[in-house]
């Protein structure tokens, strides 16, 4: 099975060599002096060439990202440059040396500096790994499931593609590259999936190696001129659904606060967190007439918008979730609180959090854990109001640990 994993890693690399294939086809069909639209390059859609000087101006280096461990909420891969991330609870992240070996297996020459190697690959118009992680299979002996994140810089290649074009051409290139190998691939479904809060194209494939069949899901996300490809390789289709439910978090930092809305003050939540309040919003702490777990309520001047901050101590959280005391150390309380509800993962200034939007109450709920295991819930209402949504996004971006 180690051989299969190695083959699949190389296959993942080949899957995302799409922009390069487009650029090569453009070079064959257009002269150096011509620029314009190129028809049907591996897909039925068109791809537009970007002038070389414009591509050179857009080309910049990126961070390879980092894996952050948290006392609560497990670990995450985070890449602030691209604004992407993924939860890794229960996964073992490949080292930079192990990632380099994948490229060596594909015929690439790598330097000792991983970040330098990644950017050198991107600048030469090739695909680079940002992160890969594995975990043991449950039913396949000595087998491993994997998550892989790859990136390609279309600006360097001088091409423009949509996410859908990129996904379609990636699969065509990847399947063609397997001809004559021990692995065969078949497309099962092409669809879109909610990844974070946005819809992105996804392609599911069945990969066969001898008598072993495993499943792969490729999700494509465009970030500026970069195409990011997430590849999930698992032993059953059920595992794909489970992964997607907890796959891509929303990455928000204080730098994302809209300066046009930023005129206000800061308040302290539970003595450990800071949160921004807009200029005409007031904090109400006289809460004798509401539930004891409500920490404070804030409203705008005419009381048409509101934010409610609640705190559930670990004891009340255990009781409400029916979790025994001895099970607490092994339980991701944030995940347990969200179980059964549609939610998106978030990282708010490096705080693992979850976002739920409830249409019935017309409210959005952001939840995160305190160091003592309790749960903070920040609600914004009416969330369907675009003005509230704008302020809520600012307030969510501001949530941070004191002193961070």
Describe the protein:
This protein is α+β, with helices and mostly antiparallel strands. The chain is built from eleven helices and 24 strands. A hairpin with a 7-residue loop joins strand 7 and strand 8.
CATH architecture of the largest domain: 3-Layer(aba) Sandwich
Strand percentage: 35-45%
Percentage of residues in helical conformation: 25-40%
Q: How many domains would you count in the coordinates?
A: 2
Could you tell me how far the N terminus lies from the C terminus, measured between alpha carbons in angstroms?
44 Å
Tally of DSSP helical segments:
11
Shape: globular
What kind of sheet is the major sheet?
A: 8 strands, mixed
Low-confidence parts lasting 5 or more residues at pLDDT below 50?
1-14, 26-50, 52-59
Write the layout of secondary structure elements.
Blueprint: H1 2-15, H2 18-29, E1 37-38, E2 47-49, H3 52-58, E3 66-69, E4 75-79, E5 84-87, E6 92-93, H4 96-105, H5 114-123, E7 128-136, E8 144-153, H6 154-157, E9 159-160, H7 163-177, E10 183-195, E11 198-209, E12 212-223, E13 226-234, H8 237-245, E14 250-252, E15 264-269, E16 273-278, E17 282-284, E18 294-299, E19 306-312, H9 314-321, H10 333-338, E20 344-348, E21 351-358, E22 363-369, E23 375-381, H11 386-398, E24 400-401
Helix pairs in contact: 1-7
